[in-house]
Amino acid sequence: MRLLLHWLLYLYHIMIFDGSRLVSFVLSVSNGMDENLAFKVSCGLNSGVRCADVCGAVSGAILVIGLKNGDDKAVCNLKTEEYIKVYNEKNGSIICRDLLGCDISTPDGKEKATDENLFKTRCMDMVIDAAQILADLGY
Terminal CA-to-CA distance of the chain, rounded, Å? Predict the structure, then answer.
């Protein structure tokens, strides 16, 4: 898993994947889900569901939780809440605009994020945290 994570972070760094697709790719590899299906399912989740809301890496992680626990809604909800609690404790929020310090759904916010290289720095940190928390929770 470690080698796979490093390789995927490299792909993220060169912008082949966004956060949600990277985390969901990990889900496909580790759970036997078709990788093309994982990409399709997570496609619209990046950039905080395109409105700087829930971080795409968090959304991708929640897809992983659903894949593993989705047969039991109550368990899935508890595991999702557990994940969000841990992510919030580590990062202070699961909201993209809070994590980045700007609203990338606006032209000014997107310009700030681009100028400050946040997509390759802060977002990468969020992707690493999202994947590491999943691993720490046994996924």
Answer: 11
Let me know: does 72 contact 35? Beta carbons within 8 Å. Answer: no
pLDDT band at 11 (very low <50, low <70, confident <90, very high): low
- Distance in angstroms (rounded) separating the CA atoms of residues 28 and 4: 12
Cα distance between residue 76 and residue 80, in whole Å: 6
**Per residue in 78-124, pLDDT tens?**
999 999 999 999 999 999 999 999 999 999 999 999 999 998 889 88
Per residue, the 3-state secondary structure of 27-67, as one string, reads: HHHHHCCCHHHHHHHHHHHHHHHHHHCECHHHHHHHHHHHH
What global pTM score does this model have? 0.79
Q: For residues 68-84, b (16+ Cβ closer than 10 Å) or e, as one string? A: bbeeeeeebeebbeebb
